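Journal club side-thread
Mid-discussion, someone asked how the predicted structure for our own chain would compare to the paper's figures. Pasting it here so we can look after the session.
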Amino acid sequence: MSQRVNPELLTEIKKYGAADISACFNCGNCTAVCPMTKEDETFPRRIIRYAQVGLEDRLLSSKELWLCYNCGECSETCPRQAEPGAFMAAARRYAISKYDRSGVAKLLFTSPLWSLIFLVVLAGLIALFMLAQPNPPLPPSGPLKVFELVPVESIHYLGSAVMGIMGLIGLLGILDMMKRISKVDDKGKLLAGGKKTNWKEALWNALITESLLQKRFREDCETSEEGVEKPWYLKKWFLHASTMWGFLGLLAATMSDFFFYLIKYKVSGEPVTPAGNPAVLWYFVHVMATIAGFFLMYGTSVLLYKRWKPDSRTYSDSNQADWVLLWLLWLAGFSGLFLEVLMDLPQAPVWGYGVFIFHVAVSMEVSLLAPLLKFGHAFYRPVALFFHALKPLEE
């Protein structure tokens, strides 16, 4: 099958943080030592070769690109110091930017200055939108009643718009990826169509076994360093999972809180604050949000420290995209927990409203940009894992 060649592919991927992978002479050592390769899987060797010879379509259609968790084993043992692990991470950033139709992902991955300006301006616009809503006068003191500052309906409408934009951008990217992957396998062969497959098992494996429970990462990708086994709470899979669980938990708590609010509003016909929701339901959401917040804060705090003082190749080649995502998640988690403390005070300070605006602006920014940041792998990896686990059944 003929393939279109992009002679500038390797140069383009380098802009996303890749080391000089041209030093690689394709010895295969990286694939041999990788704990994630199974059967006939040959990453990162195959992905590197795609980049070296300019097979862009083949690279963007590869499931193997997303099977790597960047444990660093390949980089530690590379005889040419070509940093294959860092290359795989850069290739995933490149793929996310190519799946993105807006062009924003490329900006966030390749330009530190414009990325910072864009993030600050976007957060400022969200904050100004919140402040521009018509509100009753603020009390000079008393409990922090944040929904007297900005009507909850405004937050809902803005949140719905943000989630809609995010969903559309993410969906277009996923559809592009699925179209590419479903056409060819990692060897460039056309996939057989019209056959019964184990799609239910593959879907469970992609969403629950791998994405939520981190099975392959937990069992295959953890390695002891200098003969010392790390405690479970410092292992890479747990830090990765804590961050993901925390984010998903806070998202679920936010959606549940508004759902309870909506039920109460429809039943009584009167606007209410979250405190006006049924006590048992509200405290359940409150506890869920608090637990999720601590998971998010723990995971992001330790990951930020490890990227500041790296103890393995996984963290030593940090790109601006790694820092941006972690700091945004950390700020969203910290401001949310701090806001909870302020709301529980009998006499909350007036400046607590500023904390509320900051928290909403950062949280909505994370949600809006999720498919375009490094967090995009949370969208694309399950798709690759699904196709990787998809196998035809005997008729």
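Post-session note: The chain has two domains: 9-99, 104-389.
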